[in-house]
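Students often ask why inverse folding is considered easier than folding. One informal answer: many sequences map to the same fold, so there is more than one right answer. In these notes we will look at a single instance of the problem. The structure comes first.
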């Protein structure tokens, strides 16, 4: 260990002096400690042009207005003895930390839980010395801005349970100077941006009367002085975003002293054009790619139409991997691979890639389709290897691919196609081979969901009646068995009334209880009857669904060549009834004769 000789010196910065001594002696600053031998505070002010030594706290000599100006200059000089740090049994058991606010105008001392205060009648002085030591190490002046610190420490030393470990932190304010108030720069808050989503959408859909944007007004602060004795000069507030303005046609404004809030007047998406905030229901863009819009999502409940018009035939209008979810989407161009598109109304006037996924809540209209489409109604000019699922489907030319729907119309059927319908398939012309026309209601998702829904509804009702019916029958039988007794009570009550006497109270109570039970049993009986009838109705609906294959039909307005397979699938047994017709068969359907199903036609 290097030999260190104690040094006594005067300084205006204890922290820096400790660093200088440690560096000069080649030791760590943390291995040094100091004793405060003396302190001298000097000031300059408009009344005192030369340094004036003061003994009283600054806050008692000058008012806050002067203290907060640079006209008052404060200097504190300390005489200290710097020595090597040695263990201190008392101070090592007291865990003290000091912190301040941003303006350094409020300083808090925290005695950490786990500390042990010694049983010493000079405890307040010990704590004060520890606080002063840490304040000087942190650059705070001492004996000023401390208010009633001495009284607080005396009270603490008397109330604390000495010799015991404290179980929670004890915080006290040890200094407070006239604080500076920092300026508030102007700012904006884009409330319409969806912070919960990992992906950033190009279009932020909002409903009407939604807070979408807020301009935070600038507010100047004021200067102050820190507990280190230094002035805290506060610059004026910056104004950066004052150019933002609302569009009065689509945005309403509420203003107060702190901010200006913009609210949407209509459903739509928030548009920012050169600082003009507006709500628009129509978006026009050249293309959607990961550079300008990896995600466009407003949801089907926002009345927004997105029009993508790509004039560059060498690129996709909607690039690979882009996700779109809007109410109306009109695409002039192609939908790329792995794009995910959802819209209530969907129009694509060119083509979709085979790996594109499209959903139309209502209607879809596509020129050339190769991808996957789910819709309520679908109109396809050319279907080439793609798949379509919808209630009603119209295809002008089908070049391969698969269709699943309730009602399907295809003008020209070429080759290698599969059409599955629950109700009808109508073909105008067949020009190729290896085509399959299938009536299978069970494969259609909505049909299957209806069946499962009816089954579950019947199961739920039967489960509720399972325990209720026998219990009701038992209560009804017991109720009927009491009729003769009740007749006796009625007779006694009538006789009393004819005699002008008051009927026996117990007889009256028994009669009323019987009448109430009669009413309860009637309600319960009606409930059982209603639910039995409901089960019959649902079973009737279910039976009709099971007969859906008997109502299905395949219509061909041209001639079969013997190379198109026609299949009807029994929804109950999944048995296939198939044929490969050749010639004119206007309609093919399934009939039931003597309990068996077979194909028929006309």
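Output (designed amino acids):
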């Amino acid at each position: 260990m290097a030999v260190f000789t104690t040094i006594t010196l005067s300084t205006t910065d204890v922290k820096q002096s400790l660093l200088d001594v440690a560096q000069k002696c080649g030791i760590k600053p943390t291995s040094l400690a100091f004793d405060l031998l003396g302190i001298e505070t000097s000031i300059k002010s408009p009344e005192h042009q030369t340094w004036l030594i003061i003994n009283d706290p600054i806050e008692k000599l000058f008012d806050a207005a002067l203290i907060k100006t640079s006209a008052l200059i404060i200097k504190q000089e300390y005489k200290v003895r710097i020595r090597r740090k040695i263990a201190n049994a008392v101070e090592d058991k007291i865990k003290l930390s000091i912190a301040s606010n941003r303006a350094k105008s409020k300083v808090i001392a925290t005695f950490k839980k786990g500390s042990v205060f010694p049983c010493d009648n000079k405890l307040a002085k010990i704590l004060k010395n520890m606080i002063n030591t840490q304040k000087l190490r942190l650059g705070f002046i001492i004996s000023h801005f401390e208010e009633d610190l001495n009284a607080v420490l005396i009270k603490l030393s008397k109330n604390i349970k000495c010799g015991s470990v404290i179980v929670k932190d004890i915080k006290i304010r040890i200094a407070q100077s006239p604080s500076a108030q920092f300026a508030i720069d102007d700012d904006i808050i884009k409330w319409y941006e969806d912070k919960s989503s990992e992906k950033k959408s190009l279009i932020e859909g909002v409903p009407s009367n939604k807070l979408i944007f807020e301009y935070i007004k600038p507010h100047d602060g004021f200067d102050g002085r820190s507990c280190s004795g230094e002035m805290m000069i506060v610059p004026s507030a910056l104004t950066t975003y004052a150019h933002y303005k609302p569009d009065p046609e689509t945005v309403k404004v509420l203003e107060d002293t702190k901010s200006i809030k913009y609210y949407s007047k209509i459903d739509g998406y928030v548009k920012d054009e050169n600082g003009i905030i507006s709500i628009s229901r129509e978006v026009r863009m050249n293309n959607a790619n990961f550079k300008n819009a990896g995600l466009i999502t407003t949801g089907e409940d926002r009345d927004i139409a997105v029009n993508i018009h790509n004039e560059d035939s060498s690129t996709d209008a909607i690039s690979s991997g882009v996700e779109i979810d809007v109410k109306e989407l009109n695409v002039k161009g192609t939908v790329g691979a792995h794009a995910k598109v959802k819209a209530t109304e969907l129009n694509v006037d060119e083509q979709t890639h085979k790996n594109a996924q499209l959903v139309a809540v209502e209607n879809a209209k596509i020129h050339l389709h190769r991808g996957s489409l789910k819709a309520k109604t679908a109109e396809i000019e050319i279907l080439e290897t793609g798949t379509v699922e919808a209630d009603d489907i119209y295809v002008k030319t089908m070049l391969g691919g698969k269709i699943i729907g309730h009602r399907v119309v295809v003008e020209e059927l070429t080759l290698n196609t599969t059409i599955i319908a629950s109700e009808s398939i109508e073909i105008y012309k067949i020009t190729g081979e290896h085509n399959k026309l299938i009536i299978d209601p069970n494969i259609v998702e909505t049909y299957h969901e209806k069946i499962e829904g009816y089954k579950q509804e019947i199961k739920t009702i039967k489960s509720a009646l399972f325990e209720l019916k026998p219990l009701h029958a038992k209560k009804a039988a017991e109720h009927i068995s009491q009729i003769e007794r009740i007749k006796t009570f009625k007779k006694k009550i009538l006789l009393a009334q004819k005699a002008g006497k008051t009927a026996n109270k117990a007889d009256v109570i028994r009669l009323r209880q019987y009448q109430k039970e009669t009413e309860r049993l009637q309600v319960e009986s009606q409930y059982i009857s209603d639910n039995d009838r409901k089960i019959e109705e649902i079973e009737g609906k279910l039976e009709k669904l099971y007969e859906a294959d008997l109502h299905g039909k395949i219509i061909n307005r041209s001639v079969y060549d013997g190379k198109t397979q026609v299949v009807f699938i029994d929804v109950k047994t999944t048995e296939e009834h198939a044929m490969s017709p050749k010639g004119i068969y206007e309609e093919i359907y399934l009939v039931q004769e003597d309990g068996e199903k077979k194909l028929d036609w006309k």
